[in-house]
Structures are given as structure tokens and as C-alpha cells.
């Protein structure tokens, strides 16, 4: 199996009114723990959790289109058709998984459009970390007018798909443009 996913909690699990058990998503680990509910990402390694006697909730973050766009950004052009076909096969599997799950959590409108209607139950949310106070504070900062230094911030994981490599190029172009 792939590396164990990183998890985080708003409160320590010991403070929750229920027991949290983190296991690898394979049938052996899941069957060794009596659980009332299982959750996992909509990824191939989560499929076994649909085969135990507990409701499963899947979290959909990426759609077929997003996965294809990621491959377009990272893969050599000559293998894209083959990758697209593989992604289409995987997408059929994901849709089957969503239909079998008790519910699906959809991160954003694209995931909601792709998977929300396939599930028995669904909820849509937007995974962002901005609070109203952040937006209000940003609105009080005057727009950059070229008279002061331009500061660029990057929020995201330092992975190619998140785009940190473009920040340097944007800074170079802004500098050249004055």
C-alpha cells in the first residue's frame, strides 16, 4: 500500500466524544477493529472499506478533469492519450465506489457536480483557510500601485501541481515590466 496518509485534528482525539482509530485502508486492518463508520479519500486504496459491515463515507477532492489537467501539466505529450484512458478507467471505478458508499463529501463545486448526484447522500464544502476577518483585512490594504515593493505570497504545498515554480517567473516578469 501507499504511504499512510497524514491526518490532523482540530482537537486531540482523546478530547472527542467517540473513539478514533486510524488504520490502513485494507480489509485485514479494518476487520480487526469493530467500527461504526469508516471514512476515506476517493482513491483506489479506499475501495476495500466499502466491503465491510460499516457505512463508508468518501471524500472527493479531485475530478477526472482535474486529474487529467495535472497529467497534462506534468507528463510528456506523447503518453497523454494513454494516461487519459487509464484515468477514464479509474474514473469508472471511482463512480462505482461513490454509488456504493453511504455518503460522499465533495470538496468544491466541481467535485459536487461530478460525484454528488451519484451518492445516496452528499455534502459540498469548500476547503479553504480564509476567514471573514482575513478577507476584510485584505480589503483594507490598498492595491499595489508600483510605488512600493511588491510582495508575493504562496499558499500551498511545494509540489509542482500547486505551482510554486511559477512564483519566481511571475516575479521576474513583474520586475521587467517595472
How are the elements arranged and paired?
Elements: H1 27-31, E1 38-41, E2 56-60, H2 64-74, H3 80-100, E3 103-107, H4 109-115, E4 122-125, H5 132-139, H6 164-176
Parallel strand pairs: 1-2, 2-3, 3-4
Helix pairs in contact: 2-3
Describe the protein.
The chain has 178 residues and is of the alpha/beta class. Helices cover 37% and strands 10% of the residues. The protein is built from six helices and four strands; from the N terminus they run H-E-E-H-H-E-H-E-H-H. Strands 1-2-3-4 form a four-stranded parallel sheet, covered by helices on one side. Helix 2 (64-74) runs antiparallel to helix 3. The protein is extended. The N and C termini lie far apart (51 Å).
Helix content: 25-40%
Shape: extended
Individual helix count: 6
- Average pLDDT, rounded to a whole number, is 83
Q: Structural class of the secondary elements?
A: alpha/beta
The percentage of residues in β strands lies in 5-15%
Order of helices and strands: HEEHHEHEHH
Descriptive key words:
extended; 10% strand; alpha/beta; 178 residues
Q: Can you summarize this structure?
A:
This protein has 178 residues and is of the alpha/beta class. Helices cover 37% and strands 10% of the residues. Strands 1-2-3-4 form a four-stranded parallel β-sheet, covered by helices on one side.
Amino acid at each position: 500500500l501507499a504511504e499512510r496518509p497524514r491526518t490532523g485534528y482540530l482537537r486531540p482525539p482523546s478530547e472527542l466524544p467517540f473513539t478514533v482509530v486510524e488504520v490502513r485502508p485494507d480489509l485485514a486492518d479494518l476487520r480487526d477493529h469493530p467500527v461504526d463508520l469508516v471514512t476515506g479519500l476517493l482513491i483506489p486504496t479506499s475501495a476495500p472499506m466499502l466491503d465491510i459491515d460499516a457505512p463508508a463515507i468518501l471524500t472527493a477532492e479531485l475530478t477526472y478533469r482535474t486529474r487529467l489537467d495535472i497529467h497534462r501539466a506534468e507528463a510528456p505529450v506523447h503518453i497523454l492519450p494513454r494516461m487519459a484512458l487509464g484515468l477514464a478507467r479509474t474514473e469508472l471505478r471511482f463512480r462505482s465506489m461513490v454509488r456504493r458508499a453511504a455518503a460522499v463529501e465533495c470538496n468544491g463545486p466541481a467535485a459536487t457536480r461530478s460525484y454528488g448526484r451519484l451518492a445516496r447522500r452528499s455534502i459540498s464544502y469548500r476547503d479553504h483557510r480564509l476567514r471573514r476577518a482575513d478577507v476584510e483585512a485584505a480589503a483594507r490594504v490598498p492595491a499595489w500601485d508600483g510605488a512600493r515593493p511588491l510582495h508575493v505570497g504562496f499558499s500551498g504545498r511545494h509540489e509542482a501541481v500547486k505551482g510554486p515554480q511559477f512564483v519566481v517567473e511571475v516575479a521576474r516578469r513583474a520586475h521587467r515590466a517595472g
